[in-house]
Amino acid sequence: MARRRIVVQKDDVLIIGGVEIDAEILREIVNPTKRLLWAFVKKDGDVMPVAYSEAQCIWLSDDDLVRTEAPNDV
Question: What does residue 47 show for φ and ψ, rounded to 5 degrees?
Fold first, then answer.
């Protein structure tokens, strides 16, 4: 079967594997201007997205992982 491209409109609900995702929530999840970590929690049979901001997570970039000085001798 050929792949399809689906345009999701503002008031649409996308159903993936039986999980319903509101288009507005999906839009926020893929918003590149916001730095959020998303968790998906099952509550009362529903899967709900929970956003965690930079105040709740430790954010590392590639530069944070580059060592600029030699480690101390032990």
Answer: -95, 120
